[in-house]
Every structure is written in C-alpha cells, then in structure tokens.
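I have been asked to look over a protein record a colleague put together. Alongside the sequence sits a line of tokens, each denoting a local backbone shape. I have pasted the whole thing underneath without changing anything:
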Amino acid sequence: MYRIGHIESEEQKKIKKIISEILLKYSGSAAGYYNLEKELKSSSLAQLQRIQAAYHHDVDVSESQQRIDEINADRLWTKFFFKHPEIKDITANRKYLYDYALSLSEDDVVRFENLDEAAKLPGLDRQKVKQVPTASNLSRDEENLRQFCRNSQLEPSTAALKMLRDEYGAGFDSTQIDQALRSGLINLGPASDKILHEAAKQRQDFLTNEASPQELRQAARQESEQRRIQAQQQHEAQQIKTRQQAEAYGGHPALPETDKDGVKIDRAYLLRLADGDIKRYKQWCSFYSFSQITARLNDVR
C-alpha cells in the first residue's frame, strides 16, 4: 500500500518561498523574528508579494515593517467594526477612537482592548443595526404592527410586515412603521371589523382600568366631538338623498369626475369655481343639480 502525502498547491508553494526569502533577510532580534514569521504566515499572497517587493527594491527592513504594520492595523479595524457594527466606519470615528485608544496604551501601541474601551465614548457617529429575525421577535413584530393598526384604524398585512423587516430588520417600532407608511414603503387599507372591535375593546379596558381622571375627561370630549361630526355627516347625507329624490325626474346628467382638460372635479375644484366664477358655478348647479354639487363638496360621492 502506498501512502499519498499532502500535495501543496502552487499558491501555497509561492507563499512558503516568499516567507523564507523575507525571513532570510531579517536581521533583527529573535523575538522580532518570531513575530515577523507569525504575521507573515497569517498574510495573504497579495500582502506577502507587496512586502517582498520592498526587499527587492533594496529598501530597509523598517519600510517592510511599516507595510506589515499597515496590514495589522487593517486587521485590527476589521475586527473592531465586526464587533461594533453600530459604530460607522468613517474617518472621523477612526480618528476619535484611535486618539483615545492611544491615550490608554502604556507603550504607544494601540491594541484591540484599547479600541474596545474607546467604543464606549459618547459622540461617535452611530447607526441602528438590523436585528436578526428569530421566532420570538417575529411574534413581537406582528403584535407591534397590529397595535399600530388598531390605533390608526388600519388593516395589517403579511406584505407590510415583510417590507418593514426588509427595511428595518427585526424589532421595528411604531415610529418606523409610521415613517414607512408616510413614505409609501408600505400600504395599509382600512381596518376590518375585527381590528376595529379589538381597538374598541382595548380602549375600553384602558379607560376602565388604567386611565387617569384627566385622560377620562379627554376621552369624553373626543367621543362627544366624534358623535357631533358623525351626526353632521349623517344630516348632510340625508339632505343630499332628499334632494336627489326630488330631482330624480329632472333629467340632470351625472357630474363628471374630470373637466375637459382632465382636471379632477373635487371639493377644491368646485370651491375655486365658486370663488372665481360664481355665475358659472350657479349654471353648474342648475345643469347638474344642486344635490350632485353638494355631494361632491362633502365628498359623499
């Protein structure tokens, strides 16, 4: 039986050759040699080639060491920002962190533990980190969206939940839901009877068990105002219905949705017409019927 030995790749052979060449030219201390060998073995082929190039151009060891220091510094920052993703990797943050970390060092060498301590500094430019979705925060997100919809009389949806998590990650709050709704990122339709019932029950529980006297008085005023508005709307709708019945045999054409230029004929349009050309406004009332004009002014239809 033959034992098949480990076969080195071409890249591995190049790496070993470059490391040997650099170490042969090193003339420092034994400790320095050990540290240099350790750093070289953990370097990529591209990094080693840059260091080798410095030797080939007859530069001294200090320049090569500077290149190694740059590589180590890059690794140090990579490790730091991996642990602290909430801190933005920008020049201003790096300078602030480095200056403070250097003040913590006893030998003017910035180490990871120094940067880690500097991460606690106020004044750093930070960012919100997206949470990884889990079973527990998925359930919490669903309830947050449902609670927002109860308060706003809107209907939650699976599509909106997915869009929110794609944008903000897990653990989004009501402010972010509101931002997404205002920006058009998500669309939420009118609340179903089930959501309205949940909202009413929740509000009743709050008023019964938790509300302060001031909150109870405010709730009473709000409900009174809502009843007044509802009664007014019902009164206006009944008036329109009465006029429509009276004009049913008048043969009036339907009030169009837009004018001849394609401009929508809505409440604002009719008010501008009444203010700017009262004669034409009256002609419209006569031609299309007063009930249709009133209905459009009150957004009834």
